[in-house]
Design a protein that fits this description.
The complex is a heterodimer. By secondary structure, chain A is mostly helical. Helices cover about 80% and strands about 0% of the residues of chain A. Chain A has a domain of about 100 residues. Chain A has seven helices and no strands. The radius of gyration of chain A is 28 Å and the shape is extended. Chain A starts with a helix and ends in a 5-residue tail after the last helix. In chain A, about 10% of the residues are buried. A six-stranded parallel β-sheet of chain B has the order 9-8-7-12-13-14, sandwiched between helices. Chain B has a two-stranded antiparallel ribbon with strand order 1-2. The chains are: A mainly alpha, B alpha/beta. The interface between A and B is large, with 50 and 62 residues.
Chain lengths: ~220, ~600
Amino acid sequence: MTADMIGLMVGTLLTLLVLSYILGDNPLYRLALHLLVGATVGYGVAVTTVTVLQTVLPSLQSDSPDRVRVLIPILLGILLLFKGFPRWSAWGNFSTALLVGVGAAVAVSGTLMGTIIPQTAAVGSLNDWLRGGSAGLINGLIGMIGTVGALLAFAFAAPRQPTLQRLWKGSVGVGGQIGRLFLLAAFGAAFGLALTASLTVLVGRVYAVVMGIQQIITATGMGGG
Amino acid sequence: MIYCPKCGTANRQGSKFCNECGTPLPATGLRCPMCGAMNPAGNLYCDRCNARLIPAEKTPPEEEKPERPSPPKGISLPSVPLGEEGWLSELRAEAEALDLLPEEEIPEWLAELEAPAAPPTPEAQPPEAAIPEWLAELEETVPEAPSPAEKTAPPLAGIPAPPSGEVPEWLRNIEFAPPIQEEPSAQPPPIAAVDVHAGAPPAVSTTVPPILIEEEDEGLLVTAPGEIPDWLKEAPEEAPPDFGGLVPAEIPEWLRALQPREEETVEEEPVETEGFLTGLRGLLSIGKGLDMPATAQPSLPRAPSPAAVARAELLQGLLSRPMITPPTAEAREALRQSGWIAARFLVGIILLAAILLPMLVRLSLFGPPTSTAAETLFATVNQLSENTPVLIAWEYGPAESDEMDRVAGPLMEHLLRQKARLIIVSTRLEGPAAAEALLTSRLADPSEWPRRIANLGYLPGQAAGVREALGSLDGRTEISTGQPASQAEAMAGVHSVADVGMVVVLAAQPDDLKTWLEQISVARPDVPVVAGVSARTELISTPYLTAGQLKGMVAGLTGGAVYERQLDTGRGREYEYYLTSLGAAQLAIAALTIIGALIFLVGGRKR
């Protein structure tokens, strides 16, 4: 029996254990769940060790300039370990601050340059609308109305002056209502797509179990043929 | 200022506890039990509502009242109500009558009495023969050995007895002490034990208890004619301390409560034993003294209510409940009766039947799928020249591989057919292994792996790690061989993302796609980016496709089926089964939803 066959059998068995949840919470399902969590954690530790530690630590033994470049991150990483001890957790503050600060800076710059500016430009680009013909124009208009309406749906303030308040309710209020309709449609679509993804995984699991059983029967000769 | 009865520290007016030792300070006023207003300590009635502040003393019933008159009171405290006693009314009437006497009718001795009398001198003392006759008779009737109790009243000294003939009617029954035979070296005569608050002499009447006169040396008591009253016989034997001749007044109960407490009677406030207030004393007032609440406060319930007990039990159960709570027998029975288990089992069976049916019976419920984005991507990949380096962000693991392998499989095979060089990175721990598993199955000739594929493994640091990797791809390690990426054959000429011809993001989660798109837009916005995403991520990736940030996209099983049909790798039957099963499962869920809604509408909420 090959390793692939053993893997196929174990995978099929574990899939059946997970699917036993259809009968409710039971020890077989819990067994598969614990195996999954344990294997995930163990695999994560192994990957981190191989990918990070075994790649970085040998650099300390070399005489290359990279030695200093690697030494600082290692020092920061060691300081971060003090976060696990309340008495000395302050030693890890600099590492934490560096992580949070750099992470926030990178994320903000990426969001600004990669999402906000390009998406805003795309919504208002009349050339893009016209490039797609009538369908592109309608699509662009719907996108524009939906975007503006969704933004107005989150406008929770209003001016106090009665005249401005009436104008506000007539414009922002109506736009917000339209935006809420778009939000409802978006949430519905998101739910439907998430359900589709889950069903696809279920179909794949059922397909894997059927194919696994078929292969096991064929390999072990239990089918009589 | 309020002085602490324990340590003597001066505290601010209105303080309830001593600043030095924490001892409760006596209240400085009386709170009216009716209106709640604070009154000075001497008030008998409230300044605001005239309610009585001090409860009246309980008067014994008539039959229990002692016949003896009350002892003389010392101060003008309202311990004896004025105007109630008949003898006092008579006394006041006689006093008024006396005030109305003409000047010439005032006896001489009384005029001398009103004038400031000079201290008696031995020379001024009247001779023995001057003792009036009634006094001499009185001396004979005095017993030899007076009881100690009779010493309690100081003698009435220094007041000469008036001549009997000049004594007015109202004064005849009052006996005065004879002039004291004072020795030259003797102490000053004691002050008369007159009720100093009784006021003028007219306050004394015939019903006033007889005034005791004491001779200092022999303790001789001179009493009024007649018997010693019973109340005097029952007087305590202990002589009161000498206050310089002043009779100690009877202090009412309410006034006694205001006296500084003895040290041993001061109760210790409870000391906090836990929390950050440990060691502090007297944090909770126990409400002593006369500082009564303005209004009656409802007492706390002595037993917790059933609702409170139920809430406490629920919280306790939540705290002590294990992570996995085995259903109790009652819960299992309730579930069985509700039909929930049967309903769930029925739904599961229907779903499995809908998924398995297309496998057993070849069904063609739906037409061929279409995806413009997938076709665009296919055309884009077709334009890649041989040995073009392609950076692939492999952002899914085994949990999503059932779907994502159908998305990424045809795309990877297409890239391999185009003889592109694939550089694999991932911000997920299981990404590199999932990539290796799929590429192994798609690579026709395993010997071409080193030349075609470089797996750079896991990128820690999320967005920061992505940004760093985009700038230095050759600074990493190829995990299949363990060599530096710069030495990998597939990495020839590739140092950063600027050197690759295309970036492919295979993302099962929306955030992973956003991270890569945003960081590439910052690092190299001119590099074409395409994506293979799950159905869950399709919604958020479509705007990027519309905006031109994505040059092509394979989304979900439908996109994978379209790409597979374009590429024709021989797995069309598998995709057909997947799509048919997926459609059947969706129809089953829609049917179950409609049936459930109908049951709800027909049967009501209880169903």
